Amino acid sequence: MLKTIGLTAFLTVLASSANAHSLMSANGGVISGLLHPLSGVDHILAMVCAGVWASFLGRKSSFVLPVAFITAMTVGYALTFAGVTVPLIETGIVASVIAFGIAIAMSLKVSLVAGTAIIAFLALFHGAAHGVEAPVGSAAGYVIGFVAASFALVCSGVVMGKLGQSNAGKLSLRVAGALAALGGFMLAATA
Questions:
Q1: At the N or C end, where does the chain have fewer CB atoms within 10 A?
Q2: pTM summary value
Q3: Does residue 26 lie in a domain region?
């Protein structure tokens, strides 16, 4: 689990801006969609942490919460695509990094309904960011790309959480969660 701590620390150091999405293609399409969640440390930290936290909440949550994240994120995208203004998008994204990091650090246990509501609410901001920052081009390809990359990030967090079931692993993940929350505070300070 030292790799988890190292990865989180590395990503935290990279946190120079919550709006660091410079790798995307201006033409849109699947590649641009795939790159969007991977080009911002804010999205990476939040999505991986959402998956780790989901794994902490139990077997059913490990499936339901990632699906809720992706569904709500897609709704957030659809809202901005339809012209609806979602307020405080970057604040919501940074809040998700902090909230998921703290939930992991504290090994916070909530019901499936509460966990789903929390994850869905915070995922809306990620989807809205995908919509606001969407390049001109293939909207369908872009959506397919960012949904696939986001799902991979959340599921990687679930896998990390499942692999860290030993006492040492749980402690490592909790430390990684604290570092992710710290990264969120750093993002907030630089935004």
A1: C
A2: 0.81
A3: no
